[in-house]
Specification:
single chain, about 500 residues, mainly alpha, 3-stranded antiparallel sheet, 21 helices, 12 strands, elongated, RNA-binding
RNA sequence: GGCCCCAUCGUCUAGUGGCCUAGGACGUAGCCCUCUCAAGGCUAAAACACGGGUUCGAAUCCCGUUGGGGCCA
């Protein structure tokens, strides 16, 4: 391959209705390589004549790609529309003697296979029809006798220099004369892929390891067609926690499920890139631009990788925290409205406040979902006292109420609202005066204000909530505690 | 079963013959910070599957075994 040839890669999913994690990573690697080299990414939907793609079936894939920010330069092309080209190529293979018509019936082939099994040999087609006289073969085809077209695999071995695995080779006799066109005229996968890749002038085929055994067949076709095959890079598979191929059993398969769970596109892309690839230095948290800049096919590992959700969560938290309040607010806003925390108008009316709020809670959140739960109490309205918070800080309702009394007195007297340090100093002084530990007051206050056991610093919380909300929440909390104390019951 | 791929801490990985008493990250444990929880900082436990070679010297090269995975049947 001429090194000056501009890179052309392709992502060729079958229209399964969604983009799964493995496919997403393959797409990503192709995209990264195209962007890194300034090349072209072609999108091709690998439907077949048998199962033509419907709008609905490809939408899932396009949705996934869109969320990941993977854009393509050509396509989508549809494999099913190139059937004529595939058959044309098959015909030319027959003409050049690289393929032949096979008239063996299903029964005959089954018998061959059984005989092979009985002899404890692995089955490959015997090549019986290959020995047929050319004129006889042509006559039978002309007579309309049902037949497939088989590739005449030559003796020897087929090898290639895989970018990921190094030299990889197959003994041709283990391949056997494979079918390229079925008896109904439908081109077989390996032929279709090869012809399409050829027509689209693909220079690098970057795909999953599960295609390794297809590669020798495709290389054979390329050569028979008189062209040099492209560069192959077989990327190892992504495994589930039990080390088997990632599947539905392991939770979400469609990448959009991760979007819906509150992961950031950038974080997910970063995570996917790190599955089977590394920059070579110690960088892990990387932006899209950094990934594009650092990505090379040579640095892809040959070993399959287990999908580790915990690392994804951590990475997401990292990306979340690195966004500014304003940037994150834009992403988070629909999450708040969808969760019913506030309307779009309400957030719009307090845009700057909302951005500050997001900045306040982001380090405590790993997903957008966390962000909503953290931010929720800052909006007006009643809060729900969560069981774990009550258990931890309001175990004793009387003591809790005592602490809140101090808090209430403090809030009523506070005249430097918003000045964090001054607020803290005053509250501590007042707590001292009343003989109540300041820590108790603050913790009790946290439950009263947020209903949760986790929140930002209590003064930041108060400042962000505003005096009115704080007053309301304190009154409500005291009423709740009083009711519980007379009740004598625990929750 | 045949063919092919793979083999470093639980997980993701760095490592391409000496820089390795094997580095980083997630997770785990502890400490610091501290009004909670995160974040942040520090520390700890934790790996070269096994056996043979090659070499002055192997995580690194070769062979075999074992184990995992994929494709086909």
């Amino acid at each position: 391959m001429n090194p000056a040839t501009p890179v052309r890669v392709r992502f060729a999913p079958s229209p399964t209705g969604f983009l799964h994690v493995g496919g997403a990573r393959t797409a990503l690697f192709n995209w990264l390589w195209a962007r890194h080299t300034g090349g072209v990414l072609v999108l091709r939907i690998e439907d077949t004549d048998a199962e033509r793609s419907t709008e609905e079936m490809i939408r899932g894939i396009l949705d996934g790609l869109e969320w990941l920010g993977i854009d393509w330069d050509e396509g989508p092309h549809y494999q099913s529309r190139h059937g004529d080209r595939h058959r044309e190529a098959a015909a030319s293979l027959v003409r050049s003697g690289s393929a032949y018509a096979c008239f063996c019936t299903v029964e005959e082939l089954a018998a061959e296979r059984e005989a092979a099994i009985a002899r404890k040999e692995s089955y490959v087609y015997s090549g019986r029809c290959r020995r047929l006289d050319a004129s006889e073969s042509a006559r039978r085809v002309a007579d309309g006798e049902p037949h497939t077209i088989r590739f005449a695999v030559p003796a020897g071995e087929t090898a290639w220099e895989d970018v990921v695995h190094g030299r990889t080779s197959f003994e041709n006799r283990t391949i056997g004369d494979f079918i390229v066109v079925r008896s109904d005229g439908a081109p077989v996968y390996n032929l279709a892929v090869t012809v399409d890749d050829l027509d689209m002038r693909i220079t690098h085929v970057v795909r999953g390891d599960d295609h390794i055994s297809n590669t020798p067949k495709q290389i054979l076709i390329y050569r028979a067609l008189g062209v040099e095959p492209p560069v192959f890079a077989h990327v190892p598979l992504i495994l589930g926690p039990d080390k088997s191929k990632l599947s539905k059993r392991h939770g979400a398969v469609a990448v959009t499920a991760y979007r819906d769970q509150g992961y950031l596109s950038d974080a997910f892309v970063n995570f996917l890139a790190l599955l089977g690839w590394s920059a070579g230095d110690d960088r892990e948290v990387m932006t899209r631009a950094e990934l594009v800049e650092a990505f090379t096919l040579e640095r892809i590992t040959g070993k399959s990788a287990v999908f580790d959700v915990e690392k994804l969560e951590w990475l997401n938290g990292q990306h979340l925290s690195r966004l500014s309040g304003a940037e994150l607010a834009a992403v988070a806003r629909p999450w708040f409205t969808r969760a019913g925390v506030a309307s779009d108008e309400e957030i719009e009316a307090r845009g700057e406040w909302f951005e500050d709020l997001i900045a306040l809670v982001k380090t405590r959140s790993r997903t957008l979902h966390d962000l909503v739960e953290q931010g929720r109490p800052f909006f007006p309205g009643p809060v729900e006292y969560q069981a774990d918070a009550v258990e931890k800080f309001w175990k004793d309702p009387v003591a809790a109420d005592e602490a809140l009394t101090v808090a209430q007195q403090y809030a009523a007297a506070e005249d430097r609202w918003g000045e964090l340090e001054a607020m803290e100093a005053r509250l501590r002084a007042l707590a001292d005066e009343r003989g109540v530990p300041a820590g108790k007051v603050m913790q009790s206050l946290r439950v009263a204000l947020t209903g949760q056991r986790v929140s930002p610093g209590i003064f930041e919380t108060m400042a962000a909530m505003g005096r009115e909300v704080v007053d309301e929440r304190l009154a409500a909390a005291r009423a709740w505690l009083a009711a519980r104390a007379t009740d004598g019951r625990t929750s």
